[in-house]
Amino acid sequence: QRYENILTSRPDPGVALITLNRPKALNALSTAHFRDILSALNDADADEKVGAIVLTGSEKAFAAGADILEMKDKTYADAYGNNFLSNWEDLKKIRKPIIAAVSGYALGGGCELALSCDIILASPTAKFGQPEINLGVIPGGGGTQRLTRAVGKARAMELMLTGRMFNAQEAERWGVVAKVVEEGEGKVLEEAVGMAKAIASKGRLAVMATKEAVNAAYEMPLTEGLRFERRLFHGLFATNDQKEGMAAFAEKRKPNFTDS
Ligand code: HXC
C-alpha cells in the first residue's frame, strides 16, 4: 500500500474504493490523511477503467472531523499564511461520481467530506453534525455553504449554532442523504459498491456530463444553467455512446457503452 491513512481497492473493475483507515483517531482528517484521500481520488479519476468511486470509513466512524490535536496550536499566521484547508477546493475537480458510504460519526470535516461527495448513502447508525461551534470555530470545509444548500437556512442555523448531531433518518428526510440502507455490518458499503457498479456501466461521458450539469445548478442562474445543460446535451450527440444507447433501444437490446 502506498498510503499510510487509507486503503484502496477495486471491488469491481469499474469501481475504486477508498477506505479511511485511521482507527485510533476515529478517522480524524489530519493534513497527511486528507492528502492521501485527494491523491487516491485523483488516481481513480485518471484511471480509464474506473467509472465511479466509493469513499467510506469504519463501522464506528466515517470521519470524526479535522484532527483537533493537529490544529489546536495553529496560529492565525499559520492558518492564513499557509491557506489552511484551501486544498479542500481540489475535491471539486474530481469529475467522476463519488459515493460516500457513511456509518457512525460524520462530524465536522467528516460531515463536510461526505457533503462534498455526489451521493451519500447512510447506515442507520450514521451520526452527522457540525460541532465546530463547541471548539470556538466554524466549519471550514464547506459546511456553512453545502449544508445550508442541502437543508435550508433555518435547519442549517439550528444545526451549526447548537452543534448537535443529526441522525440518518433526519438526514434522509432533509435530502442530505440519498438513502438509509438496512441495518447490518457492511451493508452500506455493499449498497454503495452496487450503485457505483451500476453507474460504471453507463456511458462515461454522459456520467461526467451529468455530474458537471447538476453541480452547475449550484453555481449558475437558471437561464445560464439551462443553456449549459442544453449545450452539454448537444455535445453528447458527437459520442459513440449516444449512437449505441439509442440504437440499442431501437433494437430492443442492452447497450454496450465504450467511450471513456
Ligand atoms: C483528533 C480525535 C478526533 C478529532 C476523535 N479523536 N475525534 N482526535 N481529532 N476530531 C480521537 C480521540 O481523541 C480518542 O483518542 C479517539 O479518537 C477515540 O475518541 P473518543 O472521544 O474516546 O471516542 P467516543 O467517546 O466514542 O466519542 C466519539 C466522538 C468524540 C463523539 C466522535 O470523539 C468527539 O466528539 N470527537 C470530536 C468531534 C469533533 O468535534 N469534530 C469536529 C472537529 S473540527 P485517544 O488517543 O484519546 O484514544 C473540524 C473542523 C472542520 O472538523 C474543518 C474542515 C476540515
Low-confidence stretches: none
Q: State the shape.
A: globular
Would you count the extended β strands for me?
Answer: 10
Beta-strand percentage?
15-25%
Could you say which structural class the secondary elements and strand pairing correspond to?
alpha/beta
Alpha-carbon Rg, integer: 19 Å
| Element string (H = helix, E = strand) | EEHEEHHEEHEEHHEHEHHHH
How far apart the termini lie comes to 27 Å
Instruction: Give the averaged pLDDT, no decimals.
Output: 97
**Distinct small-molecule ligands in the complex:** hexanoyl-coenzyme A
**Which sheet architecture does the biggest sheet show?**
6 strands, mixed
- Residues in helices, as a percent range: 40-55%
Helical segment tally? 11
| Main sheet: strand order | 1-2-3-5-7-10
Q: Describe the oligomeric state of these chains in a short phrase.
A: single chain
Task: Map the helices and strands.
Blueprint: E1 6-12, E2 15-20, H1 31-46, E3 52-56, E4 61-63, H2 68-71, H3 76-81, E5 98-102, E6 105-107, H4 109-116, E7 119-122, E8 127-129, H5 143-151, H6 153-162, E9 165-167, H7 168-173, E10 179-180, H8 187-200, H9 204-216, H10 222-235, H11 240-250
Parallel strand pairs: 2-3, 3-5, 4-6, 5-7, 6-8, 7-10
Antiparallel strand pairs: 1-2, 8-9
Give keywords.
260 residues, alpha/beta, six-stranded mixed β-sheet, four-stranded mixed β-sheet, 11 helices, 10 strands, 43% helix, globular, binds hexanoyl-coenzyme A, EC 4.2.1.17
